[in-house]
Specification:
28 strands, 304 residues, Leucine-rich repeat, LRR (right-handed beta-alpha superhelix), 3 domains, 7-stranded mixed β-sheet, mainly beta, 0% helix, 28% strand
């Protein structure tokens, strides 16, 4: 790649999926690099930054901001199976490790406060990662498609978790939460809010074919059961009043669910792609989102 000194901005996703790109040099004039700029560059082995650049730097071929507080991009072409994030890093950028399929272990120092959206998405061989008790935010789909991850622990420091941080983690059987966490808890290895009123994520790697949502749960969160192919039947208690967007989408083996007359809202594409599913509705739901039942086998309406 040519070093173009007139460039001051590299846009979001600018070099995404440039599969034959092996190395990049960031010139001194660059002031802003958008998120995911080098996402999916599977042969990229080095990002070099001009030492006179005032905004970014390179550490072992990986891209950091100048202060080395933010890890912007781990290079996807490295053959290493382990990586230790340097001490002093406080934030890991969106998609920083996206698609880094060689990594089996990543060590996060206790200086890190923020794990952004899609940070480790597609790290298919990642087995070992510990979230330190310094992290306060875990972004949307942060560990999406980490198909070798079997267990994860949310420390007490975490105050905010984005939607479905472990989506398509097909080996994940246990999401545990530190008992002292004030915002979240774990019930049978699944993620709930602290009051146990909302189920946020069902561990997709569980082999159970049936699941009963605990009594007193009032909401099924967005994407909570997304793509849980092992489930055939889910019992929804009468306490539930809201089913979120994409809550059961692409649960391809789900065969039956009953929607009680206590449910007032069903979100956008809530049962999208559930091709084997027969839904029995016992009442009139006040609000149903677009595509809520798209692709479902059958809808049966009954009155009590």
């Amino acid at each position: 790649m040519r070093n173009i000194n007139s460039v001051i901005t590299i846009g979001e996703g600018a070099f995404r999926a440039c599969n034959n790109l092996t190395n990049v040099t960031i010139p001194s004039n660059v002031k802003n690099i958008g998120s995911c700029a080098f996402d999916g560059c599977v042969k990229l082995t080095s990002i070099n930054v001009d030492e006179n650049n005032q905004h970014y730097c390179s550490v072992d071929g990986n891209l950091f901001d100048k202060t080395r507080k933010t890890l912007k991009q781990y290079i996807g072409g490295k053959q290493n199976t382990e990586y230790i994030i340097p001490d002093g890093v406080t934030e890991i950028s969106s998609s920083a490790f996206c698609g880094c399929d060689n990594l089996t272990s990543i060590a996060i120092p206790d200086s890190v406060n923020i794990i952004n959206n899609f940070t480790f998405c597609g790290c298919g061989k990642l087995k070992n990662i510990i979230i330190p008790n310094s992290v306060i935010y875990i972004g949307h789909h942060a560990f999406k498609d980490c198909r070798s991850l079997t267990s994860i622990t949310i420390p007490r420091s975490v105050k905010n978790i984005g939607e479905e941080p472990f989506s398509n983690c097909s080996a994940l059987i246990n999401i545990s939460v530190d008992e002292e966490n004030p915002c979240y808890c774990s019930v049978d290895g699944n993620l709930f809010d602290k009051k146990k009123k909302t189920i946020l994520e069902y561990a997709a790697g569980k082999r159970d074919t049936e699941f009963t949502i605990p009594d007193n749960v009032t909401k099924i969160g967005n994407l909570a059961f997304y793509g849980c192919d092992n489930l055939i039947s889910v019992r929804i208690p009468n306490s539930v009043t809201c089913i979120g967007d994409l809550a059961f989408a692409n649960c391809k083996n789900l065969t039956n669910i009953t929607i009680s007359d206590h449910i007032s809202s069903i979100g956008w594409a809530a049962f999208f792609g559930c091709s084997a599913l027969t839904i029995t509705m016992l009442g009139n739901v006040e609000e149903i989102g677009d595509f809520a039942f798209f692709g479902c086998k059958e809808i049966i309406k009954k009155t009590r």
